[in-house]
Amino acid sequence: MVPTVVLLGVFIAYPFVMGVWLSVSDTTVGKPGRFVGFENFRKAWTDSIFRQAVGNTFTYTFWATILKLALGMWLALLLNRHFRGKRLVRALMLLPFIVPTVLSTFAWRWMFDPTFSVLNWTLYYAGLITTKIPWLSDTTLALWCAIIINTWRGMPFYAITLLAGLQTINPELHEAAAIDGANGWQRFWRVTWPLLLPVTLVVVLFSVIQTFADFQLIYVLTGGGPANSTHLFATYAYQVGVATGLLGEGAAISLAMFPVLFLIVVLQLWYIRRVERT
Amino acid sequence: MDTPDRDTTPVPSVDRRTFLKVGGAVGVAAAAGGLEGILSARRAPADAQGTRLHILRWVDFIPEADVELKRQAPEASKALGAEVTFEFINANDLQARITAAIQSGSGPDIIQMLWNWPHLYAAGIVDVSDVAEPIGKAQNGFYDVFNATAKVGGKWLAVPHGITGNTVAYRRSWHEEIGVKEFPKTWEQWRQVGKKLKAKGKPVGQALGHSFGDPPTFAYPLLWSFAGAEVDATGKKVVLNSKATIESVKFMQAFWKDACDEGGVAWDDTNNNRAFHAGEISATLNGASIYIVAKRQKEKLKDEKGQPLVQDIEHAPLPGGSAGQFAMYLPFQHSVMKYSKSQKLAKDFLKWLHAKENYEKWFQANEAYSVGSTKVWEEHPMWSRVDKPLRMYQRAARLTRTLGHAGPATARATESYTKYIIVDMYAKAVQGMKAEEAVKWAHGELLKIYA
Q1: Nearest CA of chain A to the CA of B410: how many Å?
Q2: What is the ipTM of this complex?
Q3: Taking the model in full, what pTM does it have?
């Protein structure tokens, strides 16, 4: 028991408590801080870049989660069927998940490059566009590019986990439903979906937390630009706390994520427990 | 020879406590020549002083400059009796490394500082006046900009190392094709020229994203040349929201639309180099790296006629506005970190690095990309050998202003820079925000920083 408590204390409790302390202090790089109460949170709330980052984070998390869930489910259902080369397809599908985020994001950055975009080049020579699409230089498009990359990267996690869930469903249930006259959509909605719900919720729970706190993808892709249009909580906290050296303010921005994530976790765990009981 | 069987050979019984006691004592004594040696020398053994020196720098845009430093490392090691190692990282990541190092109290002994970062990290770096003053005195003095960037409270917190100038690199023939023999001297003239070139598919390329070099070195001089500024001369009063700033932003909106590759808001410091070398843009604000790389890769980088691209590259300073012509060149310096156990060694290394015979080799490898931090290097024979388009860098470092101008260079000016407030003011405007609103937004952000 003691080693466990020590491990938890050193690697989980201490950084968390330290983060909380920093967020209520005016610590800057190299200087010990004084207690300033909620001043850093007040400052963050009046900061237009922080507000923009909050909006971006919710938009990014919401759409990326929806897309990952929809596409992941679709892939899982496809892979749950029998076809030749299924194992190879499964292995290939995992590629986005196993390639380091920094590397894959660099590749995507090249594809969306404002001057040398291979996507623009392909679309142009296919006759689908006549002028360059400003993938990363348009404030709206840039965030959508990030959502697309996050979806591409996170979809295999959904697909594989949901596939595992699908394979635990007894095929006889589907057969019985089919005999009763249920079509494909009805079988999915009435049989598959309810049985898959607990797994789905767990996947969504993990994914939301990861997406909400995403850093690497944005840092490599845009650095939060153009004009802060892709800053998320984590990238802005990094810019303020680590790059600028305002550790107290950076910690407050970072910690502002905590209540949201905590609420998401509590709600989802409560729902999962309820589903399991029923 | 027979090898003893590990399973059967008896091992003398030594408990853990005895081993540590004996091993520790033997180790220390061996390293320092025995306890008597330590006491008589009245200083710590070499291990405790640190016999390794770790220097962190940016990845240079002129790869040969880094190669030269790496080549010098063994020479420095031999001269100083310590192991000197260089680490090179992306310049955009330097600030993060500095913060992490200072907070954790461990990391590189010497870290390269850009802009006026010594103000921001003053609490974590040591006074190196004893190194900087003699170098300055012996070499006709440091450029004025370093009094603002490397000197904090009258002390040198960094030893100035060099300045990377930036000018507009442009395609001579493309400009001549539209009747332009001399690069525009005013912003408005540049807009007119750029408009004609953009119509021919040869726009101006300017980075305006979140990157350390090209976006701020364009945005700040533009602001100043229209008589705008972040703060007044005292550095305390935020004065950004002015008619002059709004004019500069309105100009930028028109310039961007008429003359520029509008993808530039997503560019970092490498994009314009690539775009220029690929023949995608007619002009861009940059250091001499576009020219030097084109020169060193003559066989690879060609113009549309198949001739070496370098022959068609010319340089010119940024145009001027109603308040004059400005430049913000990139000052580099080296700071010794307070947590370093090798502070004396670090200072000795900086003295060694700036010795003429060592510095000269690095200076020449740069071929005008990074010029000296002291004025003596303006007289170096290299200048008579470099190509004509590079000679404008010879005395350029005299002209530069830095973050915070017209006020003092402060940590707050650095904070504004790190948050890209001025760059984003222009970026927001070229993305469609009204000039007045963009300026108001930036002014509000500055008020919070300078509060």
Answers
A1: 13
A2: 0.82
A3: 0.84
